[in-house]
Amino acid sequence: MSTPVYGAPDFEAAGFSRFLYSRIATMQQRNAFYSTAPPDAHDRERLNNVHPAGWRNPQPAGRYNLVVVGAGTAGLVAAHAAAALGAKVALVERELLGGDCLNVGCVPSKAIIRTARLYAEMRNAEQYGAQIPGDIRVDFAAVMERMRGIRARISRSDSVHRLIAAGVDVFFGHAYFTGTDTLAVDGTKLRFKKALIATGARPNTTCIPGLVKTDYLTNENIFDLTELPRRLLVIGGGPLGCELAQAFCRFGAQTIIAQEKPLFLPKEERDAAQLLSDAFSRDGIEVRLNTRAVNIRVEGGQKLVDLVSDDYSITVAVDAILVGTGRVPNVDGLNLEAAGVDFDTITGIRVDDFLCSSNRRIYAAGDACLEHKFTHTANASARIVVQNALFLGRKRLSALTIPWCTYTDPAIAHVGLYVRQARERDIPVKTFTIPMHDVDRAIADDEEAGFVKIHVKEGSDRILGATIVARHAGDMINEITLAMVAGIGLRTLAHVIHAYPTQAEAIKKAADAYNRTRLTPRIQWLLRRWLT
Amino acid sequence: MSSGSLINEQSLDRLQRAAFGYFLQAVNPANGLIADNSRGNSPASIAVVGFALSVYPVAVERGWMTRSDALERSLSVLRFFRDSDQSGSPEASGFKGFYYHFLDMHTGARVWRSELSTIDSALLLAGALTASLYFTANTPEETELRELVTMLYLRVDWRWSQGGAATIRQGWKPECGFLHYGWEGYNESIVLYVLAMGSPTHPLKDDSYEAWTATYQWEHLYGYDYLYAGPLFMHQFSHAWIDFRGIRDRFMREKRCDYFENSRRAIEVQREYARRNPHRFAGYDENCWGLTACDGPSNLLPELANERRSLFGYAARGVPYGPDDGTLSGWAAPASLPFAPEIALCAVRNMVQRYPEMLTAQRYTSSFNPTLANAGSSAWVSAGHFGLDQGIVVMMIENYRTQLIWRLMRDCPYVHAGLRRAGFRGGWL
Fold first, then answer.
1. How wide is the angle at C-alpha A373 spanned by C-alphas A140 and A506, nearest 5°?
2. Smallest CA–CA separation between A459 and chain B, in Å?
């Protein structure tokens, strides 16, 4: 990797304060160590794809149709889409192409979750009428090596070589705005007609006293581990904390999860969260709800964490701490003031429904501006920006139907409105519930924990939203999303033949249940009359 | 099939009287407090006192107790609460008119660092109001009782219990303030909201009830439309005092249902769940059900330490999402009598015939678990008896037989006011 030359005069010229300069310098130093994963063949392949050694930035073109800042999912999607449509595009990334999703997020977490599930199934083999293997030993290094192999393979589609082939000018370095239509990458000026800020988000680790004085894990470094911590405390019961707590417990770490709220995944329906709590307990995770970590200190090589739940407090000793207490947008160091872009350090870039910032030339997408920080939302928002910024589009963020899924076991997926949201909007709502224990395939698979709940506007078959808790909830929710986007109601879904036996049949059963409610006593009477 | 053929009046009477017997055995005559359960060193439970105050009139009417005895017991405990320490200190009995969940049987001081419980205080006050509506004679003692009850009710600061939120908090502790447990969705607390809305002194804010009902979930499950709550007691406890037949709030008007009918459907859902029996536990079928809040065979019990499946101690078991460890409550069936008499009577007879061990001294134990049968094929049975279970059995059998409690509470002006402020209309209102 080439060492960029950073010049202080550029910052001064851009009106930076000494304070900001210092922060940027710190970030640049950090960039030099952007991966602490074991430097094996897999990781060399990944890095060659997402930040090749010896990379030299190209000469900037005169004026770009679109300059994209940040090459995570949103940035990559926008760059490829815009370039494919003929735009002259520059993409700037300070660390690794692919962003969190590829490098420290969805991809590595799903890879290790798969292995964790396999270990859980081996231990539960008798449940499936099989023998429990004699010696179940977790080879954590092998788990992580497999993950790195998968990550390297998937990195090919996010590679710099593909971007070049697509005609995108790729710049590695730190981007900061120098005006309303210009930015600089480590001193090199790029001019743009339109720009997209897609800088993503980072773990929020500011809320726990003593945390910064210890070494701790977040999604940014947990996938670099080569040894399994014997005792792990997970702070935070959001998607990241829940997924990794379960995976690491299944690898054999004594795992405690402390969640400040009364239930995990507080945005989800309480039945879903309750089922997850039960699953955690079955797995052997020490579940501590309504619990805050109030102090962390290191003594004798172990981390002591004070946990408080109302009037009860306890100190736990662990070897590692994973922090999953939310994410904050990356808006620092971009000199957004110079570009006239309004932002908030908590909620990110301020955008309208068309994803346009307070500067009409500059848009934002993905975690840098969105409440729902998911890869697929970043993808969808980037596509909106390309249309709106380059082709006078009027696509709205609010028109999107966005599903999401937490990949625990069982997984928890949702799309559309929650019942509470519907009731707050005075929409009468009725929920058709199918427990997975009523679904033949779930029974055959011994995967009966969970349900499908489809919320409809009462008196109609219009789907307002749905929550699915099931082993394959993430796949199943797509059918509901499709129905909602296409305006298909439960009545039509009831006519869709579902392959038997599948777990997705639960959706058909919900639709059938709806259809049965249409058989009012009067209709039933008429039918009886007809048949007699 | 008539109800009479399922279980005769005599048997029902025996069950009801045996349940009532708990309150005679578990009382501290010096202050009228009633123990939470019959195990050694049990503290008093304020909710069980509420049930006691409600079942004394039943016992008088049935000739199991003299009116003067019932009056004396009621006065004794009401005077205790009047004189109790309301400072809110960690050793007090209460604060702001509410009481700690568990009190020392002798001193009345808070025990087990228990919370100042809003729902349990409401059950206590519902019992007190029942007593005040029964003891209506113009005698010095009965007049004193009514004045005591009025004083206790009027001093409750319901608005404080919102803790600045839109809905009532579940509890408060002097050590940490209001508790942070999620308490959303339909549950047993309609009676709490009704009493809190009906107060002329410290009522809830106008929108509190609507804020609570906004968390409801109307579901279609196993072929039934109903307002979902998993554990059966949530569909029973408020109904022990308030006759919800034909009266409807905005939510139920919208659904063309009422809470009474909803409880009947919840019983059907229990039966359907038991018939499906997804975890393949022993005993479950359409006449053997009752997943509710009860004691259970915790893995912590020495005899069950090696049991591989997860077992829960005292927990709110529910359908269809659990927790479910094969533990059922026999008393849930008689507590369902007013809603679905034939189904409930059939279940009462069936369960008692198959698992007579669930009754000890003719009285329902908290729970039984046929999956954990011993060598003699007897189901695991919870030790002793719990006051809440006995109270709901006495009251619901009585409401089924004579509607005594419902008739008394229909005349309560605070209940009337509370129901009306909560938006209830129609029926006997």
1. 80
2. 10
Chain A residue with CA closest to B280: the answer is: A437
> Which tens digits make up the pLDDT trace of B10-45?
999 999 999 999 999 999 999 999 999 999 999 999
Among chain A residues, CA nearest to B278: A437
Q: What are the residues whose beta carbons fall under 8 Å from the beta carbon of B377, sequence distance 6 or more? A: none
Cα torsion B270, B272, B274, B276 to 10°: value is: -150
CB neighbours of A391 closer than 8 A, spacing ≥ 6?
A85
- CATH code for residues A211-325: 3.50.50.60
- B102-136 pLDDT, tens digit per residue, is 999 999 999 999 999 999 999 999 999 999 999 99
| B323 to A278: CB separation less than 8 angstroms, yes or no | yes
Q: Using CB atoms, pick whichever of B173, B220, B228 lies closest to residue A311.
A: B173
**Could you check whether A211-325 and A410-522 share the same CATH topology?**
no
> Which CATH number among 3.40.630.30, 2.60.40.1890, 3.50.50.60, 3.90.1200.10 corresponds to the domain A8-105+145-203+328-399?
3.50.50.60
Q: Whose structure tokens read 């502790």? A: B173
Decide if B113 touches A, using CB distance below 8 A.
yes
A264, A280, A310, best to mutate vs chain B, most B CBs in 10 Å: A310
What is the reported pTM? 0.92
**Does any CB of chain A come closer than 8 Å to the CB of residue B88?**
no
CATH number, span B3-421: 1.50.10.140
CATH class of A410-522: alpha beta
**B83 at A interface, C-beta within 8 A:** no
* Residue whose token pair is 């939302």: A377
Q: Which residue of A has its CA nearest to B323?
A: A278
Note the ipTM here: 0.93
